Amino acid sequence: MTWLFLLCAAGCVSLLIYAVLQLYRQLGRSETVYRDRPPRGFELLWPLVNIMANSFGSFMSEARRAALLARLKRAGQEYSLTPEQFLGGKLVSAIGFALVGLVLASESAKMVGVVLGALLGFMYPDIWLRDHTLKRNLLILKSLPFFLDIVTLSVEAGMNLSGALQKAVDRCPPGPLLVEVNRVLRDVRGGKPRVEALRAMADRLDYSPVSSLVSALVQGELMGSSLGPVLRAQSDQRRTERFLRAEKLAMEAPVKMLGPLIMFIFPCTFIVLGFPIVMKFMASGL
């Protein structure tokens, strides 16, 4: 009887392993030949992300898919993740955080811990994507003035706009701005009109400094005017915006320090100053 039970248990385990392997083979893989490497968190759980994406991605509406794709483009992740894979990552994150909430919550609050953990896990990829987009936009804003200076010098030296952009790409340090400009140059070399390639970059980034620059370049291209003064004005404007942003952050610093000052530093100061006074009152019998 014991041998029969062990044989049935071994058969059940074998069937379970076979089912998991079949699930991985059918749903856990994705085409990665023409795509970039996914972010680190998604890469660690890539089979589970693809299983969720292939299982539940079809339930996503076209409007939701287009909105997610636009957000991935702004973050520079459209060649790393599809909208379905991003949704799969959110579901995997929700399950993982729900399990953490189940383990950490007390016996009377297990359900609350699971629900809160699932909500936090489902929202976490959105928070990461927003922070990544803000960080990427900041890097673009920091690199724009020097990049435009190189483009301006090249245009004033007699190069056309495509040659000036290529010269700036060769001279500037790597960053997200160069990735986008390289994409524009590849589109132009592939036969796409330069105006459409620039507008496509502005649509991808959806960032006001880049949109303003592209609008000025497109207007100069269509009007046939000299691009040197336009680029120099854009460079000065981007540099001014950078200094204004630094001044704004410097002015916000005292306000941001007020909370920790009141919560942590002031109580410790009052304890240090008040302790000898309290001890003297207690020693005198008051």
Automatic annotation (TrEMBL):
Q: Where is the Type II secretion system protein GspF domain?
A: 147-273
Compartments, as annotated in UniProt? Cell membrane
Q: How does it sit in the membrane?
A: Multi-pass membrane protein
Which InterPro entries does the annotation name?
A: T2SS_GspF_dom, T2SS_GspF_sf
The residues that cross the membrane are 84-105, 111-129, 258-279
What keywords are assigned to this protein? Cell membrane, Membrane, Transmembrane, Transmembrane helix
Query: Where is this protein chiefly located?
Result: membrane
The residue range of the signal peptide is: none
This protein's name: Type II secretion system F family protein
The lineage, from the top, is:
Bacteria, Pseudomonadati, Pseudomonadota, Betaproteobacteria, Burkholderiales
